[in-house]
Amino acid sequence: MASDSDSTVNKIFQYKLVLLGESSVGKSSLVLRFVKGQFLDFQESTIGAAFLTQTVCLNDTTVKFEIWDTAGQERYHSLAPMYYRGAQAAIVVFDITNSESFDKAKAWVSELQRQGSPNIVIALAGNKCDLANKRSVATATAQAYADENGCLFMETSAKSNLNVTELFVAIAKKLPKTQAPKQQVHSTLSLQATVPDEQEEGKGCKC
Ligand SMILES: Nc1nc2c(ncn2[C@@H]2O[C@H](COP(=O)(O)OP(=O)(O)O)[C@@H](O)[C@H]2O)c(=O)[nH]1
Ligand SMILES: [Mg+2]
């Protein structure tokens, strides 16, 4: 009989993750890269928020992310608490070529620390690191800020697919696995979730 420790049994944990950060830093592009493996040079700006899901497989657990990709414009700021409320994880994105976007990211981290879930896992992503020749935020500066504030930190590029899956996997590993597993399935079964039409489901597990 299969037991919890049986290697054929896979526990699924589900978490709400929100992306925050100034407009145009690449939030939607990071999600598109992670969920669909695509990149668009002319990514349409997000209106309100978009919802997508994707799963990652760790050794003996599967982590399903319910991803809320928010619009970065200031006029939508008052809506943000709706999306980060109850989120167990957040990715706060800035653009390494834009130091104002780093200031804005710091403001989001403070807001999450004050008003987000008590044990929220926050990851700071310095995106567009393919544009290193236009860099205006030093890696060491962002890393030091992340360390001081207990955040994960990675430099990413949605364009050249650098550290995108790695970022989500690092978050998946850091999230507490204490909630009741959503369900247990044998690993030979395909992990097909049913989602309403307007939601986007990532194709396949990012294993
Ligand atoms: N060079 C480069 N451009 C990027 C990257 N990520 C996003 N972009 C571009 O930056 C612009 C804004 O991206 P978008 O994902 O809409 O940003 P959002 O407003 O934060 O969701 C788009 O033109 C993207 O193609 C990246 O990693 N490198
Ligand atoms: Mg967007």
What does this structure look like?
The protein is α/β, with parallel strands linked by helices and 207 residues long. It has a single domain, classed as Rossmann fold (3-Layer(aba) Sandwich), CATH 3.40.50. 26% of the residues lie in helices and 27% in strands. It is built from 5 helices and 8 strands; from the N terminus they run E-H-E-E-H-E-H-E-H-E-H-E-E. Strands 1, 2, 3, 4, 5, 6, 7 and 8 form an 8-stranded mixed sheet that branches. Helix 4 (139-148) links the parallel strand 5 (121-127) and strand 6 (152-155). It is globular. The two termini are 26 Å apart. The chain binds guanosine-5'-diphosphate and magnesium ion (MG).
Keywords:
single chain, Rossmann fold, binds guanosine-5'-diphosphate, disordered N terminus, binds magnesium ion, eight-stranded mixed beta sheet, 207 residues, alpha/beta
Relative helix content: 25-40%
Number of helices: 5
What is the multimeric organization of the chains shown? single chain
Q: How many domains, in number, for the residues?
A: 1
Helix-strand sequence: EHEEHEHEHEHEE
> What fraction strand?
25-35%
Radius of gyration: 17 Å
Measure the end-to-end span: 26 Å
What are the distinct ligands in this entry? guanosine-5'-diphosphate, magnesium ion
Shape: globular
- Average pLDDT for all residues: 86
Biggest sheet record: 8 strands, mixed
Named at the architecture level, the CATH assignment is 3-Layer(aba) Sandwich
The counted number of beta strands is 8
Which class best fits the helix and strand makeup? Answer: alpha/beta
Q: Uncertain runs with pLDDT below 50, 5 residues or more?
A: 1-8, 183-199
